[in-house]
Amino acid sequence: MKRGQWLQARREELKLKNSNNASAWSLRGVAEALGVSHSALSHLERSDAMPSLDFAIKLAELYGKPVEWVLTGVDAAMENGIPIVGTTLTGPAADYLNHGYDPEKFHQFVDIPTSGARSLYGLRIVDNLQSVAYPYGDVVIFEKDGRRMPGELYLVKLRSDDNFIQVLSMVNTREEGIVFNSAAEPLERMTFHEDEILFMHPLVAVVSAWNIQKV
């Protein structure tokens, strides 16, 4: 299911529940409440486009859902934020990948309500990813169980090289493997066979350091 489909379904659900004020839940009514154009919201509902984090937060508040649901479709009980489980140099901690979120081990989180599924995690940006788009100290949010789509950015970890952890742009899939562009060097292409990849997690958002809280 495309992201726009679950967003549209939720709006239609709220429209039925609030039949006395159905116009507030029309495309135009919701667009006005969110401060965007009717056409922008219509495009979002007809596509699989990833909304900005700020816009996702507004949608989540209006629709009464976790931010994670807006971004991934996952819906569960509300909990505190998105755990920070490593840096862009080290990648997510093995404990998190193997056993999931443990509040005894991970004491920092991004202060955005999310679901109990904990499929979103954060990495602090360090020197290897530092750029205008990724300021040092901010947090990059990734989805642990995300879908694969050409044109999206992914955190890629190889099985054969413990030191290879990079943010790459997926170009396409060929018989010889998955083709990526380097995020740092867009003209540099690399191809990895499925068996070579330990994981590839889609990049969801970049969050300012001021959103970081401690448990």
Question: Topology of this protein?
Answer:
Layout: H1 3-17, H2 27-34, H3 38-45, H4 53-63, H5 67-72, E1 78-79, E2 82-87, E3 91-92, H6 94-99, E4 108-110, E5 114-115, E6 120-124, E7 139-143, E8 153-158, E9 165-174, E10 177-182, E11 189-192, E12 197-207, E13 212-214
Parallel strand pairs: 2-6
Antiparallel strand pairs: 1-5, 2-3, 2-4, 4-13, 6-7, 7-12, 8-9, 8-12, 9-10, 10-11
Helix pairs in contact: 2-3
Task: Write structural notes for this entry.
The two termini are 34 Å apart. The chain has 6 helices and 13 strands. 25% of the residues lie in helices and 30% in strands. Strands 2, 3, 4, 6, 7, 8, 9, 10, 11, 12 and 13 form an 11-stranded mixed sheet that branches. The protein is an alpha+beta fold. The relative contact order is 0.13. The model has no long low-confidence stretch (mean pLDDT 83).
List the keywords.
HTH cro/C1-type domain-containing protein; Umud Fragment, subunit A; 215 residues; Cro/C1-type_HTH; globular; 434 Repressor (Amino-terminal Domain); alpha+beta; Lambda_DNA-bd_dom_sf
In short:
The protein is α+β, with helices and mostly antiparallel strands and 215 residues long. It contains 6 helices and 13 strands. The two termini are 34 Å apart.
